[in-house]
Fold this protein.
Amino acid sequence: MQYVPLGNTGLKVSEICLGTMTFGNEADEQMSRAIMGKAFDLGINFFDAAHNYNKGATEEIVGRWIGPHRDEIILTSKIFFPAGGGRNDQGLSRRNIIQSTEKTLKRLQTDYLDILYLHHWDESADIEQTMRAVNTLIEQGKVHYCAVSNFAAWQTIKAISVAEAHNLASIVATQPMYSLLKRQVEVEILPLAAEEGLAVVPYNAIAAGMLTGKYLKDQEIVGRLNEVEMYRQRYEKQQYTEVTRRFVVHAQEKGYSPAALAVAWVKSHPVVTCPIIGARNLEQLQDTLGCLDIELDTAARKEITELSFDPPTATDREPMAAMLARGW
Ligand SMILES: NC(=O)c1ccc[n+]([C@@H]2O[C@H](COP(=O)([O-])OP(=O)(O)OC[C@H]3O[C@@H](n4cnc5c(N)ncnc54)[C@H](OP(=O)(O)O)[C@@H]3O)[C@@H](O)[C@H]2O)c1
């Protein structure tokens, strides 16, 4: 296992982060413990949780396992989505940030989170108040760093600007969706992260299972795309099926497992810090971790990228390089 800098924090994290979203749902407690144990034994020291995963059951499972390993693990959780059932148990209000994080710490049986992600932009909350609330938790030692997930570039830079203007703890990382099927982040988020020195910790690297090719073989197979409507809709476009088909053939030709190659492709982007992987059992974990043995150079990465389709540019005007090449 290699260890990489987490943005500018000075922390070193494993080149793969372990996602916990299946714990307490697809993976029961025994299987979740086996997955955490295997990942830890292999040197993974970066675990990703969220307060709303399986209504808090995920954090409880991690909390019952993590005790003896806590000092060695960089542990994250998140805040935004509804969790408690109450009208105000959601969003990025000061009230919810502080109360929900206290509950997260109890479930995780820990005194602090290494990273608290703002899980989504909240249109109804003033970002300055949000950053002040996280800053309070940081001053209390309950959270070490603030990060964002699913934020657009302008939302991220607004949070950073507000923090800097008011001398509050700023953003150290971003957690976007990123895979060969979903490349929107290449347009603005990744350049922003490079410019600001943010760590990039992408999720959905194998498109929630789609890029394994298993849905091409058996449309009725047990899996998230057949079990969760949000995911079915996310990947239902015909062009995703076509890219998957080309990608699976490419993986077979190169002798790689598609799951491993999909994660290796995300990992090979120069601005990506480490992808988060997820598994419902040890077989999936083992298969996906094959990514650790795949080194994609620029040419090999480009070959895979070309199986996909480029996202539209950030503005309709051509970039400066194109204008220069034309002689303005
Ligand atoms: N910030 C956010 O908004 C956000 C959103 C989602 C996830 N996350 C985090 O990122 C982590 C990973 O995300 P993800 O689970 O969506 O990533 P993913 O790697 O794209 O999908 C993982 C899923 O694909 C299937 N799978 C994995 N390996 C496989 C294999 N080798 N063969 C066949 N199927 C395989 C499993 O689902 P099935 O068995 O059901 O097919 C597994 O749960 C999560 O645990 C969570 O910590 C964050």
Summary: The mean pLDDT is 97. The two ends are 48 Å apart (CA to CA).
